[in-house]
Structure formats: C-alpha cells, structure tokens
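Structure tokens please, single chain.
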Amino acid sequence: MAHGSSALHIPASTLSRSPILVIEDDLDIRETCRQILEYEGYTVLTAANGEQGLEILRRGGVRPALILLDMMMPVMNGWEFLKNRNGDAELRTIPVVVVTAAGRLGGDEPASVQGFLKKPIELEVLLDTVKNVSR
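Here you go.
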C-alpha cells in the first residue's frame, strides 16, 4: 500500500460518495480493505458475515455504493446473503463484487454480481474495481 507520501490524500470526488460495505469474515482482509479504501477517501462499513451485512443494510439511513462480498463465511455465507439481498427490492440494486480465493464461482455466478476479485487482492485491482463499479 505504499503511495510514496506520508500525507493522507483524499480525492474530493470520493468524499460525497455513498460508503462501501465490506462483508468478510477474515479480520485481516476486512481491515486491510477498510484501511486501503479509507486511505483513498471512501467511507467504509464492515461486517463479519452476511447476517451482519444485511443488518447494516436494513438499518436504513445509509445506502452503500458497492458491496464487497466474501462467499465462504460462518453464520450466513455469501450465497445466502445474495439470496436475501436479491429478494429485497430496495437492496437488490446495490452492486456486489464477490471476493473469493477461486476468482470465479465455477459457472454458478449469479446475474446480480457485477464483478469478481481474486484473493489475495491486488491493490490496484481493488481500487480500479471499486472506482468503476461504485460510480
């Protein structure tokens, strides 16, 4: 995550954007994504599983511009999260990018997914994906 400068650079274009919701059970990955995205000026919400992610979404008040979703999680996995999200007219329009070690889901990709990020996530790929999908 070296950007060559110790000063925090927050692009003005990202300050007014809706937050990014990161749903990931691995604390290190979740926190790294949060730190990188916040460094780039995004507001980030985090959840350790799909159930927590749905609670954040249904609480109201904040509508994420994008959901970064791990598929293999305890309590509620990514598949269950997508099923619940797709069944809710207000939530199903929020773009989802799946984050997975497989890179793809083996032909079972739901139509409601806008992209895939392969773990380990490359910094530039993460930032480009977030920028392009969360417009």
